[in-house]
Amino acid sequence: MNEYAAKVLANLKAKNAAEPEFIQAATEIIETIAPVFDRHPEYEKEALLERFVEPERVIMFRVPWIDDKGNVQVNRGYRVQFNSAIGPYKGGLRLHPSVNLSIIKFLGFEQILKNSLTSLPIGGGKGGSDFDPKGKSDHEVMRFCQSFMTELSKYIGADTDVPAGDIGTGAREIGYLYGQYKRITNLYEGVLTGKGLTYGGSLARTEATGFGLLYLVSEMLKCNGKDIAGKTCVISGSGNVAIYATQKAMQLGAKVVAMSDSNGYIYDPNGIDLPAVKQLKEVERKRIKEYVSTHPSATYTECCKGIWSIKCDIALPCATQNELDIEGAKMLVANGVMAVGEGANMPSTLEATKYFQEKGVLFAPAKAANAGGVATSALEMSQNSQRLSWTFDEVDAKLKTIMINIFHNIDDASREYGMEGNYVAGANIAGFAKVATAMMAQGVV
Ligand code: NDP
Q: Distance between terminal CA atoms of the chain?
């Protein structure tokens, strides 16, 4: 590896030893962009990589709120404003008990490159809290969101930092957050994306990440002489990304046979009945295992990792980070998987990713494959600035063009650096190139 990149990576590991997810993401990125520094020795003189790996700002704050029984609860809030070289910070808010600084930093770091790949003017950031919306009443969620936004509102704005949804932050939470922002600042502006359609949201934003994943994966297959139609897919998760990935996969002629939640997975050899999953997860907020009570052809298995033992042509991990490890990768390869597309952020461990690549599996990494969500968020920002709304078809067409372009950019970058077919390297290099050029132009800041 390039000596300068290796030195920065070693320092990063020493300095952030208690942040394993951040180190994992940074290791993959730095290892793959290292050849860029051979071609650009001037970056070292300007300490470009040292600056790139350090967030511009980290905000951590107390979020006190009162539950339905009148007890005071305290959670911790985060916003990592990582890089604004190419636009205002942009990235979601994750509400999940596992949230900590390491996870928010890994997500924010990945977001810089992902946002760059969309070709739209958005920088990288991420935020969230260890608050768990599961099992809370609507009023409890509202009180939490209002307290969270009371603090966060000091640091964000339509031209500064534009948060969005992520795990645990859906339409309900975005609505409460937006209401509180407006109340505090007296500004009706596009400060959040993923908003409801009656107050500045974009058509197709809900579908965007899942649809975008399938647009990119089918382009990857096409450019490698394969076709998605008639293929069998396994999709983990049953949240926003998984549901719309399933919908688009089916529209493109694939058969989705398995989905999951954090308790277990369902396998339906007849093909998943998506309206039934939507009813369970989006309307009734129930567990996926309920599916088998109305679908006798299906089975339910406790523990979600077993989903990778199901034979399929295409695997789309759409739940959470590190859900697909080396055991899962080995099972998929043994069963003849031809392509993996990451709908979730960093769902594959480093070991699993390398294994897929060694075995010649087409592998579309998250920062390219799931960029459709943030790309459509940026389209929502454009509509808010114009005070206009585009039709579903207009937004969907732009999304499709963006995803196809992303695939070709990462493919071209992998070839340019002599790593043809390595889309992990291609995505990191293509995303980094634009940010590095902007950072160099803006001086040491
Ligand atoms: P949701 O909260 O809507 O859904 C998450 C899904 O993953 C649920 O089915 C959940 O199950 C499951 N899940 C959560 N934790 C685990 C776990 N530890 N093991 C197995 N399954 C788990 O989130 P999204 O669909 O929005 O996000 C999914 C992933 O996609 C995340 O990595 C997110 O960062 C990424 N992403 C999302 C984007 C978006 O636009 N929404 C954009 C880009 C990336 P349960 O219901 O049991 O919690």
A: 27
Give the residue, by CA position, lying nearest to ligand 1 atom 41. 166
Residue 168 Cα: closest atom of ligand 1: 2
- CATH 3.40.50.300 corresponds to the domain 3-187: no
Task: Report which secondary-structure segment, H or E, holds 82.
Answer: strand 72-83
Q: Which of 95, 234, 236, 241 maximizes ligand 1 atoms within 8 Å of its Cβ, making it the mutation to test the pocket?
A: 241
Supply the mean pLDDT for the chain: 97
Strands (E), 192-290: 232-236, 255-260, 264-267
User: Which residues make Cβ contacts (< 8 Å) with residue 425, sequence separation at least 6?
Assistant: 32, 33, 413, 414, 417, 419
Which residue(s) pair with 169 in the sheet? 166
Tell me the CA–centroid distance for residue 75 and ligand 1, in Å: 21
Digit-coded pLDDT (tens) for 250-287:
999 999 999 999 999 999 999 999 999 999 998 998 99
Judge if 3-187 and 206-364 fold alike in CATH terms. yes
The model's pTM is: 0.93
Residues facing 259 on adjacent strands = 266
pLDDT value of residue 332? 98
CATH superfamily of 206-364: NAD(P)-binding Rossmann-like Domain (3.40.50.720)
> Taking the domains of the chain in order of start, what are their residue ranges?
3-187, 206-364
Mutating to test ligand 1, I would choose from 106, 240, 342 the residue with most ligand atoms within 8 A of its C-beta, which is: 240
Cα of 112 from ligand 1 centre, angstroms: 20
pLDDT computed for residue 220 by the predictor = 98
